[in-house]
Amino acid sequence: RDQIRIVGSSTVYPFTTAVAEQFGKTSGMKTPVVESTGTGGGMKLFCAGIGADHPDFTNASRQIKKSEFEDCAKNGVTDIVEIKVGFDGLTVANSKAGPDLTFTKTQLFLALAKEVPDKDGKLIANPYKTWKDVDASLPDEKIEVLGPPPTSGTRDSFVELVMDKGAEGIDSLKALKKSDAKAFEKVWKSIREDGAYIDAGENDNLIVQKLEANPQAVGIFGYSFLEENQNKIKGAAIDGKSPSYETIASGEYKVSRPLFVYAKKQHVGTIPGMVEFVKEYVSDKALGEDGYLASKGLVPLPGDDFKKTKAAAEAMETLKGDQLM
Amino acid sequence: MTDTAISAAPRRVSDNAALVAKRYRSERRFKLYGIAAIAVTAVFLVLLFADILVKGLPAFFEHRMMLPVSVSQEAIDPQNSKDPKIIRTGDFDGPIRESFRAMFPDVTSRGDRKKLLGLLSSGAADDFRAMVVNNPSLIGTDAKVPVLLSDDADQYLKGRQTGVAKIAGQGTITASADGEKFKLVTDKTPVLTAGDIVRLNGGAFRVVSADNGAYLAEQVTAPKSLDPANAGAWDIVRFTVTEHNRRIDDQEALWLEQLKEKGVAENGIAWRFFSSGDSREPELAGIRGALTGSILTLLVTLFLCLPIGVAAAIYLEEFAPKNRLTQLIEVNINNLAAVPSIVFGLLGLAMFLNFFGLPRSAPLVGGLVLALLVLPTIIIASRAALRAVPPSIKEAALGVGASHQQAIFHHVLPLAMPGIMTGTIIGMAHALGETAPLLMIGMVAFIVDIPGGFTDAATALPIQIYLWSDLPEIAFQSKTAGAIIVLLVFLFVMNAAAILLRKRFERRW
Amino acid sequence: MDTMIKTPVADSAPRIARERPLKIKARNVDVYYGEKHAINDLSIDIPDSAVSAFIGPSGCGKSTFLRSINRMNDTIPSCRVTGNIEIDGRDIYDRTLDVVQLRARIGMVFQKPNPFPKSIYENVAYGPRIHGFARNKTDLEEIVVTSLKKAGLFEEVKDRLDHSGTSLSGGQQQRLCIARAIAVNPEVILMDEPCSALDPIATARIEELIDELRQNFCIVIVTHSMQQAARVSQLTAFFHLGNLVEVGDTDDIFTAPKDKRTQDYITGRFG
Amino acid sequence: MDTMIKTPVADSAPRIARERPLKIKARNVDVYYGEKHAINDLSIDIPDSAVSAFIGPSGCGKSTFLRSINRMNDTIPSCRVTGNIEIDGRDIYDRTLDVVQLRARIGMVFQKPNPFPKSIYENVAYGPRIHGFARNKTDLEEIVVTSLKKAGLFEEVKDRLDHSGTSLSGGQQQRLCIARAIAVNPEVILMDEPCSALDPIATARIEELIDELRQNFCIVIVTHSMQQAARVSQLTAFFHLGNLVEVGDTDDIFTAPKDKRTQDYITGRFG
Amino acid sequence: MSGTYFAIMAALVLAGFFLGAQRARGVRGDQAGMLHSLPAYHGLYIAAAVLTVMMVIFVVGAPLASHYVVSQGLGAFDPSEVAEQLHRDAALRDIQNLIAGIYQGEPSDKLKAAAAAYSAASSLVYWGLNIFGVLAGAAVIFWGLGRITPELRARNQFERFVKYVLLASSGVAILTTIGIVLSVVFEAMHFFSKVSPIDFLFGLQWSPQTAMRADQVGSSGAFGIVPLIAGTLLITVIAMLVAGPLGLFSAIYMAEYATPRIRSVVKPILEILAGIPTVVLGFFAALTVAPLIRGWGQSFGLDVASESALAAGLVMGMMIIPFVSSLSDDVINAVPQSLRDGSYAMGATKSETIKKVVLPAALPGIVSAFMLAISRAVGETMIVVMAAGLAANLTFNPLAAVTTVTVQIKTLLVGDQEFDSAKTLSAFALGLVLFFFTLALNYIALKIVQKYREQYD
Ligand SMILES: Nc1ncnc2c1ncn2[C@@H]1O[C@H](COP(=O)(O)OP(=O)(O)OP(=O)(O)O)[C@@H](O)[C@H]1O
Ligand SMILES: Nc1ncnc2c1ncn2[C@@H]1O[C@H](COP(=O)(O)OP(=O)(O)OP(=O)(O)O)[C@@H](O)[C@H]1O
Ligand SMILES: [Mg+2]
Ligand SMILES: [Mg+2]
Ligand SMILES: O=P([O-])([O-])[O-]
């Protein structure tokens, strides 16, 4: 095989494909094949072994887990290079024709959780039909949220970054967390299934179109889609901060996550072009503040981080398991 | 028995005129239902095609500029090596950007420059590079090169972002600074509305609000002076979509308008759409990779299922003894013909990829899966074609002492061939449009390079359509529809060939 | 219309045609299938209350002319009929005539028995029902029973009227088709080789029935068997290559044919 | 094999069978189509250099027996033949016999002319070619021309041998089929109602040809026309409901049938 | 290796053919008709024999050969080093890389030795197999030439060979079915060992979120397919409500009323519709029809989901119109003309004849056409993937979003590939359900058609 193969996250996919294309154009080597399999699926394939049958890179919308790292090692995949490529803000957005929205995480939790505490702190099935039911400051519109399906890492992140934090903002649940962590976990991990939350598939583009057609609906997706479609949709502020390059890069906008690409160092030399591909990925032209990935919606790393990442990646420093969780 | 004469008085049909009228009404109504059903179907088809055509035709055009560029030795081939490999890595973007910037000498700030260059495609230099690589003697000369605009600029120029109206200024207009804003005063009845751009003295102002007789405006581009402008020296540019609902802002739109006015930006046929592979940039993306993948896949399919299908049909139609085995085969074929295609995808995934370890995303596997998928169709069509050859032909051959196989291979099969070909073409057309099973075997991937063999990674045309429909850039929507048009053209050609073949060789025995 | 009639029927009209009232009168009929000229300038008088037989070698146009009489040829797009056919003096190719009504007045029995794939009862009730003959169920039942009786089938099927018509034997099916035709009380019954698909016993049964029916109906029968024509008919018409060669009393035709071709045919010189 | 023969042929063998050498001998032949018993215990002797005709009402098994003679019935999976048929003393149902070679020795002409949709030349050349009769082109051409001449077709088609066989008229097609059968130089020619799809003139032409061919071939013809049997055959066999009712010299059968059923049939009492 | 072998094989097959034919011609001399079979058949006879023998040698020999080569290569290592499959693969890759000259770094002595053994073994095998093949092929040719006599039934022998080839070709259908069943059943069994079939078949909740990783969140995991079935049926019913009447009336019009000219226009229209890929229809459904329906619904104050079952169902209905119409057209045409004649002769109008005679007679065929159409609708994937949602709502409201079996299969497999979580395996269980459901429908439909055919044949 003389062609790089890449699998993994659908969130990182648009960026990696852009790099792959650029790489193919300028290096004179074959353009890498990029498949979107989801972060978890990508890890699984990536860790299945070394050799031409297994991919050389995997994209991930979260850091590799310790368990996955160990899995890799067991299969002989021991030299893994981690490249942190930037951030993705999870955005809650609606049509430009709709109202301007500002949410708190707790409001989002109340609107989307399967069970919410009632006045006495007892858990009941989510009774809220309109946003106004959740909080009087919100518009009097039906709750209709198009979001990622359970198969995606985006959904995982949303639940961890918004629902968990949102639940903690409620006193009775905070108490529950102390007394029964398991039960608490179940509360924030369960998204309502009565039709207010709609699994909208992986076709984020269709979600955008649907939002445009339906001004009351709200969608959840990665920042890059908001960036691409700013003429149609707008992002809601969460805990007072609107999603933008600046707020995400600076960490003010809290609902964001780092994105990674993992390389299999053992394939270097066997599969041509791996080093060059990494170089292209971390070049200023690509990952820099004005790089082409930024225009694709990737929120670049702040300057120092970027330099560090770049140096580490170009040196192909391998990952140590003990840094992982 | 004759004595059982009809006892009732003779009834005559015409007695009951009302009934007759009613029967005729119901007759007409019934016929109308049929016509209506066909009409509804036809209207649906027309809507479908119209929708796709409207969405897809822009995909076949692109906007580019012919820019004069100096092909500099330093930037491209400093060592004067004349080696295409080295030339290829030269800096082609620089000269183009320079030349483009030279068209807008007024643009000086870093931010504006960046914005201006953003109007160029990231592949703007591709054509230039190819030109020089093919013809190194250009180095050191000045050349006119085609420069591709970005997808957003292209969409704007195609009028797909906003409509533009340009109104010549009537009377005299005066702009004067008013704090951060500017005040515009005309001596004619008000013609301006909020959002209008007024261009005067080389600058541009966006009207913000009307202020009894005068207008409040913000500066978009700085004018050379604030002298009053007379009729003819100023104009109004009015967009149908407000700025914040566009991906091209007013400033960029004005630049593009200038390009248009200078006649630099031209709309040409996007041959690139047919000659390049997939890309993340809509303006660069093409269907050649997917088309090649489809063709490779179909070759595998055809190569497998035509001989196997025809052989199976001959066996079943002519040689199969009536026993359990052949009955089983028959039932199997009929059932396979109706097994959902996605289940064949599961077969490909579990058998070809996981069990036999064939490569992912390969036309070989795609072809195998599709071959199994269309095999029943071809067998059934071939059997029908064989059956349509009258037995008298076979008997005639047997009668002069031909063996059963001779009778079939010399007489029946050649006569059935048009029918078999028709069935095969229709089966292939079906395979060409099939998507779901290919998704299952990894043919859904981002693949730029044109596949060169049966085990290279490849996608297929319908998968490309599915992938593009998923991408965020709006320009991909028309690419999707454009690819659909190409796919449909192929299908029509195939179906038309099948119909012609059928017509041409239709025999009434 | 009479102006159109060019060829008057021969003065020496057959005896039977003189004895019985005239039912069907055809003058200068030509029938084409597209280019093919299937019937050539045919004129004939067919009497009521008698059986008329059309005989002739295969493809000579017997069926074609028979089907022109109830305009069944209308269903063949390429078929074109010119000339003049009258029933009871009414031109049946008149534009104002309702062909659906015409066919109700002219029953037809086909070569292969073609009962509808419905019950025996429904087969017979079909015609009366679509023409609104019966005001209620009893009425209808009466019509069905009478028709079956007339067709000589009632006794054989009376306790299985709800069985499918296709479950009967060939001869029974053909009688069912006759009952079905009778049920709408037609004036003419056309039969196109009604016995050719039947065995000799069933054939005999049908021939008997035809003989009975001729009391009340004008019957026209096409047959490829000269013997059958001789047995059941009173008038015989001999067709050859689209021409009506000779018409006459059956006895005369078979004993003293006037035309050479008729003679050759009935002596088995050809066909 | 002779032990199997239960019914010896009647002593009073037909005259023609005594005059000519025996070609085909059938004893106790039964044919079944699945459950259906189509031929019942049939025994017959067919002489060489003569025309034998099989007559009888429709469905009586004439074609079935004819097709048993060149084992064309093998192509019908449900068909089963028992008993013994010999040609020139060789059992044709013997396992070691190559049926393809057998059929080359027994030509067959079908009811509907069925030329191959190829050129006239190719139609005739096909048989010689697959049997490797000709070593070169001239050889083959000679065979084709001779066969066409024998079939009386050559003069009519000699300057369009490359035209399609299907472009000929019905009678010509049938003669082409005869030429095709002759071309492999068979010993027996079986003809299943060869004229039923033809007009009287073409029929006469074929009958004439049959008469000529009988000098060199053993010809068996099935016909539904008693007249035709009378005209062309020397031996006639009358079939009825799967039984061979009567065999005899044609003149005898038509003038003095022995069996009541034969008599009824030829006088038109049934059929 | 195989390339050379097949080239040799092709050459020997050709040689066998020509030599055989030549020899037969020699035996014949100039006595035409003396040979049992034509010379060409003698050639084909030998060619077929060569082909068979050499194929068998390859099919048996190639795996043996590669096994031998691998064992020679790995023999240089300690058995413990290459006990595990994974290590074996890695070692092999190293060996091959070394031989190909693309090995990175300094190879160990062991590896060098292994590579040497490996390449020695592979060249031995390469020559061995090829030479053996040539010898065997030549031997077969000699044997065949010796057998050529005038009596040799070369044609019969060759035809027997052809017949086996034909039989084998039709056996592919059985292999396919077995392949489908195997590939689906094993994974499905795996799944049922994790989730009880009862819960699967009768559960009212579908939410396939078992933990993909040990530490993943949101792993409630409910695998009840009732909502999927309900969603599938809802969309199918909508589709049939569209396709049933439109298809049937089109068929009636085409078969009974249309002149040949109209037919020649309308038939291609329906064929075009039948040929449109479903991904195209899905694009149309998602981007054009769904928003349209939503817009209309809202103008009537209805609450329409953006991925309504109605939109997917309508477009799917359009897709299956040609199925219904062409199958119905066939059965209506199969009704014998004599029945129509019988009815016309009674004085029935055309529509009466159609309604009271033709349609009842064609009913079984039409029913089975509908069943085939239903099975199409149930198995259709792309339209619903693009236009129907993923929300497993148990509802019969056509304006709501539902999901289907095929959508779930596609989502579960293309989203994340993993072969041991219940989530991924459930796709195969769904595949199994789909397979048997459509199988049953088709089987019944075919039986009905067969019965119906018998009625008229
Ligand atoms: N639908 C048709 N289209 C064209 N030609 C037709 C059609 N029906 C009949 N013919 C031709 O018209 C001629 C007369 O046919 P017709 O069926 O009336 O003959 P017939 O005397 O009834 O013969 P048979 O005894 O075989 O039934 C024949 O040459 C026949 O080929
Ligand atoms: N392939 C078959 N399968 C079953 N039964 C058959 C088959 N062929 C003929 N028969 C039956 O065998 C009997 C004899 O048929 P055969 O064709 O020999 O009659 P025939 O005398 O040639 O009649 P015809 O004059 O109509 O050609 C008939 O009852 C027929 O229905
Ligand atoms: Mg007729
Ligand atoms: Mg016959
Ligand atoms: O593809 P994911 O980034 O959602 O795992």
UniProtKB/TrEMBL annotation, chain B:
Highest taxon, organism lineage: Bacteria
Name of this protein: Phosphate ABC transporter permease PstA
- Which species does the entry assign this protein to? Taklimakanibacter albus
From TrEMBL, chains C, D:
Q: Which UniProt keywords apply?
A: ATP-binding, Nucleotide-binding
Q: What is this protein called?
A: Phosphate ABC transporter ATP-binding protein
Automatic annotation (TrEMBL), chain E:
Superkingdom of origin = Bacteria
Q: What is this protein's record name?
A: Phosphate ABC transporter permease subunit PstC
Q: Which organism is it from?
A: Taklimakanibacter albus
The encoding gene: pstC
